[in-house]
Amino acid sequence: MCNSKILPLVFGFPSALSFQLKAIIFVLLRLHSMGCFRVILSIILPPLAVLDKGCGSVIIVFLLTLCGWVPGVIAALIILNNPNRI
Q: What are the boundaries of each domain within the chain?
């Protein structure tokens, strides 16, 4: 069970920070398989960051970006951070 007092300490931000922003920060902290350029590109233009990951990934990220910028960024960062994909 997660203690609500520990979570802000892990991220270093107050608990009022939105869940989506915490997810972006968590993925950014795991930069082991991504380059800094890819991370910046996925924040600015999420579909362009996943162009080499296949047509399906580009379409999914594009549709999520149309729904809202934050879902597109989260999807792009997750796809880029997945070590099992080529």
A: 7-81
The span from the CA of 48 to the CA of 61, in Å, is 9
Give the model confidence (pLDDT) of 52-62 as tens digits. 888 999 999 99
Q: Among residues 39, 4, 36, 45, which one has the least CA distance to residue 24? A: 39
Among 18, 43, 81, smallest CA distance to 8 is for 18
What number of helices (H) and strands (E) belong to the chain? 6, 0
CB 37 within 8 A of CB 83: no
The reply to whether the predicted model has a pTM over 0.70 is no
- Nearest Cα residue to 66 out of 37, 50, 46: 46
